[in-house]
Amino acid sequence: MSQNYDVKDLGLADQGRESIEWADREMPVLRLIRERFEREKPLQGVRLGACLHVTTETAGLMRTLKAGGAEVFLAASNPLSTQDYTAAALVKHYGISTFAICGEDNDSYYSHIKAICDVKPLMTMDDGADVVSYLHKERPDILEGIIGGTEETTTGVIRLRAMEADGVLKYPIVAVNDANTKHLFDNRYGTGQSTFDAIMRATNILIAGKTVVVAGYGWCGKGVASRAKGLGASVIVTEISPLAALEAVMDGFRVMPMMEAAPLGDIFITVTGDTTVISGEVFSAMKDGAIVCNAGHFNVEIDISALEKMTKSRKVIRTFIEQFEMNSGKSVFLLGEGRLVNLAAAEGHPASVMDMSFANQALCAEYMVRNAKTLEKKVYSVPADIDAEISRLKLLAMGVSIDTLTEKQEKYLASWEEGT
């Protein structure tokens, strides 16, 4: 099939290639997998439709999948996260059909998803489950030809498990997000660092001394709260899970309901994966000048429509910052249109942490091909041996050695007869 694409400007391709090569230096695990894929071609003949953030790190994954023999088609999983120079380089220098333009409107966003579905992929690779959802709703005619897929995010896994529970999921999916080498590192360290990178780039404010309200204490929330604390902020966590709330308390954070936190916070960051976490009622209770942003996948966590109804005027005052002057006279500042702030206002996660996440994607694609005939129409966890292999390769690349069990230790751990 001939290559087709929709990107902003192919003239940006050389800049994109330089950035992709820079990121690749920090992705040694993916490089090792790419070298093996180049030799073995485990994805030969697979048409793969991917809907991911089109960044330099993602380019490394696309190159790896192509090296493995796949015919790759890529669309953006967020209208604001695309790096136009990366999209151009993928098309011009790496021969990958890419459909992504930074700032694309809703119609363009879904036309790009449609474009990768129209090629009738044998495998999907999602970041938020938009492709899976589109295929099930709009293109059920091609579902039977799909051998499997992977999902990158917490939000997407939630959607897919709901589909499985309702009995409507038509092909197997591996929940890459649930791999230890993904969520323990990407979600925690990647989201934690890149969220504050975005906030500081957009606002140029000092975090030290501010009160930061973190909505949600999953792995992403843990990372955001930890980095806020490290930057000198006073941190409040809001939660609906007693266990997560207790963990936040034990980690040294104040925990309270959102309505109690609303008048205290200077910066609000949502990382829950749920809708309307910051409602009109919460906006009403905020102090003048509060900054609000979202680090969850979809822009539903902040009720922007409610804010609009409470607003008498609005204007963009800096790139990625919109001021809403409310009827009460107070102002609220929204970052990145309420979309995933670390990709809307910055460059997303550092390459070294995406190295593990995308290694999971590549190896799970290989796993899908090898096991296509036996997998059921359900959501699967990443196999433990893939998780362990990625950990081993990452340590090897970092020059870190660990101990191995002696024969005596292995025997002790395997025995029930030896006590104290």
Explain what the structure shows.
By secondary structure, the protein is an alpha/beta fold. It folds into 2 domains: about 220 residues, Rossmann fold (3-Layer(aba) Sandwich); about 150 residues, 3-Layer(aba) Sandwich (Rossmann fold). Helix content is about 45%, strand content about 15%. The chain has 17 helices and 15 strands. The strands form 2 sheets. An 8-stranded mixed sheet has the order 9-8-7-10-11-14-13-12. Helix 2 runs parallel beside helix 15. The longest helix is centred in the middle third of the chain and has 24 residues. The chain is globular, with a radius of gyration of 22 Å. The protein starts with 12 loop residues before the first helix and ends in a 6-residue tail after the last helix. The relative contact order is 0.13. The mean pLDDT is about 95.
Quickly give the structural class: alpha/beta
Give the strand line-up of the largest sheet. 9-8-7-10-11-14-13-12
Query: Quick check: average pLDDT?
Result: 95
First CA to last CA: what distance? 66 Å
Overall CATH class of the largest domain: Alpha Beta
State the share of residues found in helices, binned by percent: 40-55%
Question: What best-fitting shape do the alpha-carbon axes yield?
Answer: globular
Radius of gyration: 22 Å
CATH fold label of the largest domain: Rossmann fold
How much beta, percentage-wise?
A: 15-25%
Low-confidence stretches: none
